[in-house]
Write a structure and sequence with these properties.
seven-stranded antiparallel sheet, 3 helices
Length: 153
């Protein structure tokens, strides 16, 4: 694995803290907010079978693997994913830590810290390219979650 690329993002959900935390009980909905990602089933160990496709310029890669969501504190959620692209033998691992806090006007602030690592043919793309793609994915993730929270409030 090439050392991790780290990203951070902050967004606000138009929902009170308790409602925002409830939003994250829908694993398929949360993962579905990551562009190109989906959950297909729940495994016996509580993890979920998942897929994600990522486009970088003319190239694209599709991973199949496992995602786990765990609440590490009353206001912190960790999303852990690992997968492999069987064709090119690329492995990927990632963590997203979401920390929730009350914001003005009864809304919820979410601090996102993400870390991704790749091995195989993606490794030479380097940190800059991986960071650029990852940053766009995380911005889209936050915007999708904000839209879902607004639709529920």
């Amino acid at each position: 694995m090439v050392g991790p690329v780290t990203l951070s993002e902050r967004f606000v959900l138009a929902a009170p803290l308790g409602d925002a935390l409830t939003l994250f009980e829908d694993v398929a909905g949360v993962i579905g907010c990551i562009p190109g990602a989906s959950v297909s089933s729940r495994n016996e160990d509580g993890s979920h079978a998942a897929r994600i496709g990522v486009q970088y310029g003319e190239a694209s890669v599709h991973f199949a693997g496992v995602v786990r969501l765990e609440r590490t504190s009353p206001t912190t959620l960790r999303v852990r994913a690992e997968g492999q692209d069987g064709l090119a033998r690329i492995r990927a691992e990632g963590d997203i830590v979401l920390t929730f806090g009350e914001a003005t006007g009864g809304s919820t602030a979410v601090e996102l810290a993400a870390s991704f690592a790749f091995s195989g043919v993606l490794a030479p793309l380097g940190r800059a390219a991986t960071k650029m793609v990852g940053h766009q994915l995380m911005k889209s993730f936050g915007a999708c979650l904000a839209a879902r929270a607004g639709a529920r409030s």
